[in-house]
Amino acid sequence: MNTASRKESKAQSSFELLITLSFGIAILLPLVLIAFVQLSNASSSLTSAESQQAASKLSGVATFIGSEGPPAKQLVEIQVPQGVQYIDVGTQSNGVGHEVIFVIRSPTGLSYITSYTPTNVSGSLGGITSQGSYLINVSAQSNCPSNPLLPCVYMIPQT
Which of 1, 4, 44, 123 is packed most tightly, with the most Cβ within 10 A? Predict the structure, then answer.
């Protein structure tokens, strides 16, 4: 076998390997992208579920404290998941209302996780934006700080 045919054989082997690797990458790349999309969706679902749990906990405590009336109060611990932009209590402008609203970032934009309570609620939880455990003071007020004409259950972070 001469030198030219050996070089030709090595070049052919290298070319075949390159083609094989290209097909392998072409097949694996879409699978990797699909896995990343699924992981992102799972993370978003987990954030939504954790936010719903925290909102339900706050509205449940608010309902209980509201039924007791002033001067009832309770300290409650909530877990805030990653991705929470802010938390509104009462209405989206933090006035007196009937909802606890977690606004979270999702791949499609902002999502709103709400929990209803029959009691008038208001509060100042907008400063809670990072993941973690927070203590919240929940107290029945005869004159709500955000609207002194109405009684409400008021929520503020423990300082």
Answer: 123
42-63: b (≥16 Cβ within 10 Å) or e: eebeebbebbeebbbbbbebbe
- Please write the tens of the pLDDT for every residue from 46-79: 888 999 999 999 999 999 999 999 999 999 999 9
Query: Can you tell me the distance from the alpha carbon of 12 to that of 107, in angstroms, rounded to the nearest whole number?
Result: 46
For the chain, give every domain's residue range.
37-157
Instruction: Give the rounded percent of residues in the chain with a pLDDT score beyond 90.
Output: 48
The answer to whether the CB of 101 falls within 8 A of the CB of 87 is: yes
Q: What would the pLDDT profile of 92-110 be if each residue is shown by its tens digit?
A: 776 889 999 999 987 788 9
**DSSP SS3 for 21:** helix
Q: Encoding tokens for residue 155?
A: 């929520």
Any idea which residue has 């009832």 for tokens?
A: 72
Question: Cα separation of 13 and 10, whole Å?
Answer: 5
Tokens representing 38? 């699924």
Q: Measure the CA–CA gap between 66 and 64, rounded to whole angstroms.
A: 5
Contact 30, 38 (CB under 8 A): no
